[in-house]
Design brief:
- The protein contains 3 helices and 12 strands; from the N terminus they run ββββαβαββββαβββ.
- By secondary structure, it is mainly beta.
- It folds into 2 domains: 138 residues, Roll (Pnp Oxidase, Chain A), CATH 2.30.110.10; 44 residues, Rubrerythrin, domain 2 (Single Sheet).
- The strands form 3 sheets. It has a 7-stranded antiparallel beta sheet with strand order 2-1-5-8-9-4-3. A 3-stranded antiparallel beta sheet has the order 11-10-12, with no helix packed on it.
Length: 207
């Protein structure tokens, strides 16, 4: 089986947000689809704190990210845990139906959970749309753009994660986001950071 073909499926890049008590939390998602005219489905890994919080609150919002998304959004929401950090610190947002959505995004969709399906690793939440709007004109980011232009990678909790094959060349892999550095990273200065998750070179291991 050649699962490389799965990379040809089309995805977007989104921030799915909900509430942890009186504070917002959220994560990056790419597996989202419109099921009917008023219902969407989104897949969230069981390990993600956002999954736990959506189960508690029964609601979530989706911010549709554009290609001009702020540089801190994907590193913070995609490669850190809401159990450990407050992801919305210093992130401009607006409240919609009690949920925080990203101001610098194409728009938002707010949903109430109506059903869910459990898989071995993920929960697929069905959400009835209770509000949605466009925020600004921009080009929505596709997952293909994220990979090919921004050179982004997928965390192991992502539905679309595919383990990269080791290179025959000298390379180092970021243990946080799986970014591959080709060459000898030990020659980089001490303040070098991963271009995707912004962690220091200490988190890299040899491929």
């Amino acid at each position: 089986m050649n699962n490389e073909i799965l990379k040809e499926l089309s995805y977007g890049v989104y921030v799915v947000s909900t509430m942890n008590g009186d504070k917002p939390t959220g994560c990056i998602a790419n597996s989202l689809m419109q099921v009917t005219y008023d219902t969407i489905a989104v897949s969230i890994n069981h390990e993600n704190f956002t999954n736990e919080c959506i189960n508690k609150t029964g609601k979530f919002a989706v911010s549709i990210l554009g290609t001009d998304v702020d540089e801190n959004i994907i590193p913070v929401f995609g490669f850190q845990s809401g159990r450990e950090v407050f992801k919305f610190e210093n992130v401009p947002t607006q409240k919609v139906n009690g949920l925080d959505v990203i101001k610098n995004s194409a728009g938002y969709i707010v949903c109430e959970v109506t059903d869910k399906m459990e898989t071995e690793t993920h929960t697929v939440f069905l959400g009835k749309i209770v509000d949605c709007d466009k925020i600004k004109d921009c080009t929505p980011m596709t997952y293909d753009y994220y990979h090919k232009v921004k050179k982004g990678t997928s965390p192991k909790t992502a539905p679309t994660y595919i383990e990269e094959k080791p290179s025959s060349k000298l390379c180092y892999r970021c243990t946080i986001c799986n970014y591959i550095y080709e060459g000898d990273i030990t020659k980089e200065p001490d303040d070098y950071v991963c271009p995707i998750c912004k962690k220091t070179k200490s988190v890299f291991v040899k491929c």
